[in-house]
Specification:
By secondary structure, this protein is α/β, with parallel strands linked by helices. It contains 8 helices and 9 strands. The N and C termini lie far apart (about 45 Å). The N terminus is likely disordered.
Length: about 240
């Protein structure tokens, strides 16, 4: 299902976010537009999660301006986010998705068909009656993706969706991300895995100490990084 991109582009104009005396994001100017996945990379604490939360509208900027489709105050009805450790509700796999559909105000008469469609998209249609909290880590992450897709989002934010997963579970998530992006949904994903960034990214945003260090098309970024920080990070050396 192709989602209308009513929240795109998402534009950050000189955005800073402070927490007490700590600056989490420092004068960020970025645009997230329709197209291939945008992947955020950088060392731990670089600001990736904060940027995703701000783009979702979960936290407010201290300075600067964020707009969604040209609007400064846009309810997150066409945006969805999946965190690194999603919380599973105390109900079945299908019940988790049904809850998400109800939250999105989908007509109940469509529930059964839509639940099956969403679970099939993430390869869990055979586990609909299983308690969600008994799923493996990879299966729980896939269920979280199904719940997020229940909002029929124009843009989907993913925060380290394959962290701590084994290669098979990681591949399953990556395949779903490709399917989502192929259906016209903008994916903005944070990852610590440079291999995953190479496999999925259309463009890269590299963060360090809350600042955007370098952005660009993925092939150019990986083949000819322009900044010392990017070269250091890609070489696998510590960036402090």
């Amino acid at each position: 299902m192709r989602a209308p991109n009513t929240d795109l582009p998402i534009v950050f104009e000189d955005v800073s976010i402070d927490a007490g005396n700590v600056t989490l994001l420092d004068r960020i100017s970025l645009t997230f537009s329709l197209g291939a996945p945008t992947v955020l990379i950088g060392p731990n604490g670089s600001g990736k999660t904060t940027l995703l939360r701000a783009a979702m509208g979960l936290i407010s900027q201290s300075r600067g301006r964020i707009t969604w489709g040209g609007r400064e105050r846009a309810p997150p009805t066409r945006r969805a986010i999946v965190f690194q450790r999603p919380v599973m509700l105390r109900r079945s796999v299908a019940g988790n998705v049904r809850y998400a559909l109800n939250a999105a105000n989908l007509a109940p008469a469509q529930d059964a068909e839509r639940i099956h469609e969403l679970l099939a998209t993430v390869g869990l249609e055979h586990l609909g009656s299983r308690p969600a909290r008994r799923l493996s880590g990879g299966e729980q992450q896939r269920l979280a993706l199904a719940r997020a897709l229940g909002r029929d989002p124009a843009v989907l934010f993913l925060d380290e969706p394959t962290a701590s997963l084994d290669p098979a579970a990681t591949k399953a998530i990556e395949d779903i991300v490709r399917t989502i992006a192929g259906n016209g949904i903008k994916v903005v994903m944070a990852t610590h895995d440079l291999g995953e960034a190479r496999r999925l990214a259309g463009d890269i945003v590299m963060l360090h100490r809350g600042r955007v260090i370098e952005t660009g098309a993925a092939p150019a970024f990986f083949n000819t990084p322009r900044t010392i920080e990017a070269k250091t990070f890609l070489a696998g050396e510590l960036l402090v």
